[in-house]
Design goal:
This protein is an alpha/beta fold and 176 residues long. Helix content is 23%, strand content 22%. It has a 5-stranded mixed beta sheet with strand order 5-4-3-7-6. The chain has a two-stranded parallel sheet with strand order 1-2. Strand 3 and strand 4 form a beta hairpin. It is globular, with a radius of gyration of 22 Å. The chain starts with 5 loop residues before the first strand and ends in a 40-residue tail after the last helix. One of its GO terms (molecular function) is DNA binding. It comes from Rhizobium loti (Mesorhizobium loti). InterPro entries: GreA/GreB_C_sf. This is Nucleoside-diphosphate kinase.
Length: 176
């Protein structure tokens, strides 16, 4: 990872700082890589990060050495995505990809001495860029829309009725 410049959002930088503090306590072999990543990164506000920079929750297309292209979403934890879909930033590859720009490559040296090179081919989706595009189009972020309203005349899936409980109709704790 030496000699490569990364761009981290303030949020991603804070995540890596916390990860570094926790891993130092256990003498984790990833500590030197985390230290280099933080030292070689410039920090940008979340709203100002370029759309071709890999951030947490970005969908990235990358290659390891001369292998086939892989598509993954950079996630914080392993349980944040279905199996095979996410790439935790706590892994060697996830950490390397975080903050890279499309077209950028970087070598990874593992504690066992093995090396591999990662090329970030494309950032297919970046949440920060999607939020900016939604705001520019006058939409709610993430395309959220109201599916059901309690005051609506009709209910979803053809259901209908009223909310049974009214003011002063509280059955109290014995109903539980």
């Amino acid at each position: 990872m030496t000699g490569t410049m990364y761009r981290l959002t303030t949020k991603d930088f804070a995540v890596l700082e916390l990860m570094l503090m926790r891993r130092r306590a256990f003498a984790d072999p990833a500590v030197p890589m985390l230290e280099r990543k933080l030292a070689e990164s410039s920090v940008v506000p979340i709203g100002a990060v370029e759309p071709d920079v890999a951030t947490v929750n970005s969908r990235v297309i990358f290659r390891v050495d001369d292998g086939p292209a892989e598509t993954r979403t950079l996630v914080l934890g392993e349980s944040s995505a279905p199996v095979g879909y996410g790439l935790p930033v706590g892994t060697w590859r996830g950490l390397c990809l975080l903050g890279m720009r499309s077209g950028q490559s970087a070598p990874i040296e593992r504690p066992d001495g093995s090396r591999e090179s990662i090329l970030l081919e494309d950032v297919a989706y970046q949440p920060e860029a999607a939020r900016r595009a939604a705001r520019a189009a006058g939409q709610r972020p993430h395309g959220l829309r109201l599916v059901y309203s309690a005051t609506a005349d009709h209910w979803p899936l053809g259901g209908h009725g009223k909310i049974r409980q009214t003011e002063g109709d509280d059955p109290g704790p014995s109903a539980a």
